[in-house]
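Friendly challenge for the regulars: who can give me the C-alpha cells for this chain first? No prize, just bragging rights.
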Amino acid sequence: MKPSFFHRTRSVARLMMFALGAFMPATALDVQDITFNGLGWVQYGYVVQSTDTAKNNYNGNSVQTTGAQISLRAKISEKFQGAVGLGALENHLLAGQSARGIVPLTVTPYIAEANFTYSFWNEGASLLTLRGGLFPYDYNPDVRNLGLYLLRGPVHPGILLSGFETKAVLPIANTLGFQLHHEMGNFQQDFILNSETDLYPFYDISPAYVANYRPMPALRLGAGVNLYRFIPIESKLTSPEYFSPNGRDQDPGGTPPYHPYRRAYTYVDTVAHDTTFISFAGIKLMANASFDPKPLFGNPRVLGAEDLKIYGEVALLGLENDKAYKDIYGDYLHRMPVMMGFNIPAFHFLDNLSLEMEWYGAKFRDDLWRYQTGRSFYPSPLPVSNSSYDPVSVFDPEKNVKRDNWKWSLYGAKTIQRHFKISFQLANDHFRPGGVVASPSQESILSTPTDWYWMTKIAYFF
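First reply, four minutes later:
Bragging rights claimed.
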C-alpha cells in the first residue's frame, strides 16, 4: 500500500528542502508575521461486530491512537505566505486472533503541511490565489465521514475510503501538488494538480476541476471532474500493454472456465477471443449540494450554525463502458456511490451531530488487497473476488457481497473554550484498521448491516 522507505525518505527530504527554501527570508520578518499552531490528541475505539472474519477476527478489538503536530506560518509579503508543519502518530495494528495478544506500538512521523500561497489579487468579492506543495484540501466541508469521492480512492476498482476523522476531513495535508483557486461573488472554482502518494503506482499526476455556486444563502451547489492518473510517471505501470513476465495474464492456472479476477490486468473475452488491458487510470465525475433552511426563517439563535443542514454527494467512478469494464465493474448504476447527510439539531450542546447514509452497489469486495505490492504478485486494478479473501480464487456468485451496499455514520463534536475538542463516531462504513500484527491487509471489515464500531477522541489545539 505504501511507497518504499527509500521513496518516502526522498519525498520527505524534497518537501523539507522546499519548506526551508520557502522560509529562507524569515529572519527579516517581524514577530507578528510568524504564527504557530499545534494539535495533540488521544483516540480510543472498539469494534463491536465484524461479521466478515474470513482472514482475521476483528470482533472485540480495541483501537487506540495518540498523536501531535505543530505548524509554523509566515507572512512573507502582502501577496506571499508559507506554512510548514510536522507531526507524529502513535498507533498499532489490531490484535485479531493473536493468542498472545501482543500488539507493538508503531510511531509514524508525517509532514502536516509544507506549502506556499501566492495571491494574484484579493479585491472585494474577487480572489485569485495559487497554492503549492503539501496542503489540506476539502471541496465539501459538510462531509464528516462518507463521501468525498472525487479525490479520495481509486477508479479501478472503485473502492471507497472513509473512517473516523481521516485526513480528508481534517486540516492535515492530503494533497501534494498545486491548487489554483478563484472566487467571484457567490462562485468559486479550483483547478487541482495532485500527485498520488497513497496508492500504487505512486506519483502519477491527476488534474481535477471543482466548482461551487451559492445561488442563495440557504443553498450551495457543486460539481467536479478528476482525470485520475492522466499524467503517469511510468506509463507501463499505470496502463500496461504487455503480459506479465511470469505469464500470470496468459495462463491464470486452475480449472476453466477462468474467472477474470485471476489475471493481473487483462480481461479475456473467451467468446470473441479478445483481450483488454485494464488501466489504473480513469475519469471520475462528482456532484454535491447542501441546503441550510435556517436563513429562510431568520437564523434562530436556539439552533447551532450546523443544525438542520441537509447535504449530499453522488459520483461516477470510471466512464469506460465496453464489455470488459461492464463485466468487471458493472454498469454505470453500480459504479455510482450516493451519500446523504443530515445535521440533527443539537441546540449548541454540540457543534454538530451528523447522520450520514450511503448506497453503493459495487459488485466486488470492498478490499484494496490487490493494490499491495509483493515479490510474488503484481498490483492489479482488478478487484478482489467476493467468494473468498484469495483474490484469484474461483468466483462463486452465491457469495457476492451485496449486504455491504448500505453504510451509515453518526458523528458528533463539541469545542470547549476554543482550545479543546471532544468528538465521537458510531459507524458502519469503510473502516480499514490495517489488518492484524501477523497479517496486515487493506480489507474493509464491516460487510453486513449489523456490523459497526465506535470511536472517540479528545484533542487540544492552539
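The first helix runs from residue 5 to 22. Confidence is low (pLDDT under 50) at residues 1-17, 389-398. Your move, everyone else.
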